[in-house]
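Quick one: structure tokens for this chain, please?
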Amino acid sequence: MADHKSAVKRARQNEKRRLRNKSTKTRTKKIVKSVRLAVNEKSKEAALSELNTAKSIIDKAAKKGVIHKKTASRKISRLSRLVNTGSA
């Protein structure tokens, strides 16, 4: 465990950030899963609405620094391609 006062504070900050990032990542994973399920069920409207929600959540995660900007872009691109080809 940390010995110095500054190291103890840093450990506290890291734990708070870890929990905050964990909730954002979990939310991202769940919305991606819901988009994939909507595509598998062949419901175009549901897939498009889920995709719009997913884009928003993924962009927010990137803005907060939870995931990298290019990772967010890649996820959105793959989901968009899946919705466009899967429901066509």
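The CA atoms of residues 42 and 87 lie 6 Å apart.
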